């Protein structure tokens, strides 16, 4: 499962805080909502790595920043990684977030994660005041001027009914506050899944949100760590898990269109070998298959755990936080997913997604070329559509995804959005 390793040392304070305040928290300009379809891999915030540097190197312009949690159980104050030396402040990650935005991207702060959910330091499990929880969310929103907050709920947090209710009541308070401020705010839930959709514990979180009139903009399922003793074909299981979630959301939100329901679905893979072991390996061949399918269905989010794992530095090792465990080029998974980001913005702060149609997948002309197929043979001049873009083959090819990048030897020429 998505989790946080305890930090070995305090994160260093970022210099240039005054610049970060000006660039991140601009009171006279509302933050732009995220694209309707966004690739945003998780960034392990406790490592000391610079998120802006990794975003630039990987091509992943949007990052999900993991994690925010209380330092001790019972606290109503959130810190990055539960580290009291890393408060919610423009002095911590402020200048890096500004640099990410300057590069055309943005960040999604994420609360929770396996460690917080296991130790009672997830903010709504820890804090018993709904108003204080809402204030924590609002502080993150205004400090970093973000438009979406992710809530990673798993392990003990899935059975803490009081925490679930407090969290959803706080979401509703923040949404009312945002509407009064004219500010765009979205909330996503990240939840564990089976290969056929959410277990009842995950559905209970969403049922409670509906009961509290808390709008859930996206449900992001972790399509890994099934721990069911089976050998998995991870791309196929992603499709069945996401389809199961789509059908479950139809029951919870009967007034939404099919396109709106698919746009509520997010998928997070664990690239390479997950915590369970080799039987659950998301391969480099799985990545373009999932990217194409997610684009065709109109999912709202494509992500993976985690950006620092997107390299082949530890062949055969499962569950590492610093490498995938499979043979790959550095950033190969990021390159396979990066074209997924497309479309306009998500719902406005005053409009329910139940009545707002999802944005088109791209701003270019309609894709008329056939979708790329991993088993088809293409010759020079053949055109395909992939992840909302048009590609033309330079020479004979089979099985090589348009998302594969090898410089001058790229098989596919990118002809732009369609």
UniProtKB/TrEMBL annotation:
Pfam families, per the entry: CBM_5_12, Glyco_hydro_18
Gene3D superfamilies: Carbohydrate-binding module superfamily 5/12, Glycosidases
Residue ranges the record marks as coiled coil: none
SMART domains found in the cross-reference section: ChtBD3
Signal sequence residues: 1-26
Chain intervals for the UniProt region annotation (Disordered): 344-367
Compositionally biased residues, Low complexity: 347-357
Keywords: Hydrolase, Signal
UniProt KW Signal keyword: yes
Limits of the GH18 domain: 37-327
This protein's name: Chitinase
Source species: Actinoplanes oblitus
């Amino acid at each position: 499962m998505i989790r946080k390793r305890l930090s070995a040392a305090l994160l260093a304070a970022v210099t240039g805080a005054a610049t970060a305040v000006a660039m991140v928290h601009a009171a006279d300009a509302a933050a732009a909502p995220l694209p309707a379809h966004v690739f945003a891999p998780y960034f392990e915030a406790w490592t000391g790595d610079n998120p802006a540097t990794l975003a630039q190197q990987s091509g992943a312009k949007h990052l999900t920043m993991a994690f925010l949690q209380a330092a001790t159980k019972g606290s109503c104050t959130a810190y990055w990684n539960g580290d009291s030396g890393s408060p919610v402040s423009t002095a911590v990650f402020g200048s890096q977030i500004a640099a990410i935005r300057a590069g055309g991207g943005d960040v999604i702060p994420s609360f929770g994660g396996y460690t917080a959910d296991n130790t009672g330091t997830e903010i709504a499990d820890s804090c018993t005041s709904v108003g204080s929880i809402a204030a924590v969310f609002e502080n993150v929103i205004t400090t970093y001027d973000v438009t979406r907050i992710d809530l990673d709920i798993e392990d003990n947090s899935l059975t803490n009914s009081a925490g679930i209710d407090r969290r959803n009541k706080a979401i509703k308070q923040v949404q009312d506050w945002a509407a009064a401020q004219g500010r765009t705010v979205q909330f996503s839930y990240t939840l564990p899944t089976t290969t056929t959709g959410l277990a009842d514990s995950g559905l209970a979180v969403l049922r409670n949100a509906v009961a509290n009139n808390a709008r859930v903009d996206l449900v992001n399922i972790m399509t890994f760590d099934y721990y069911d003793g089976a050998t998995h074909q991870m791309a196929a299981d992603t499709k069945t898990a996401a389809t199961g979630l789509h059908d479950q959301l139809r029951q919870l939100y009967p007034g939404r269109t099919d396109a709106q329901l698919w746009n509520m679905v997010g998928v997070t893979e664990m690239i390479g070998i997950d915590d369970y072991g080799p039987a659950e390996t998301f391969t480099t061949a799985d990545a373009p298959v999932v990217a194409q399918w997610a684009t065709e269905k109109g999912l709202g989010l494509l992500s993976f755990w985690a950006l620092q794992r997107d390299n082949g530095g530890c062949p055969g090792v499962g569950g590492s936080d610093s490498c995938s465990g499979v043979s790959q080029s550095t950033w190969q998974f990021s390159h396979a997913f990066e074209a997924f980001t497309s479309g306009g913005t998500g719902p406005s702060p005053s409009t329910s997604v139940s009545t707002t149609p999802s944005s088109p997948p791209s701003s270019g002309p309609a894709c008329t070329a056939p979708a790329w197929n991993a088993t088809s043979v293409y010759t020079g001049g053949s055109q395909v559509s992939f992840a909302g873009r048009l590609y033309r083959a330079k020479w004979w090819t089979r099985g090589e995804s348009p998302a594969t990048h090898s410089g001058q030897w790229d098989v596919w020429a990118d002809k732009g959005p369609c």
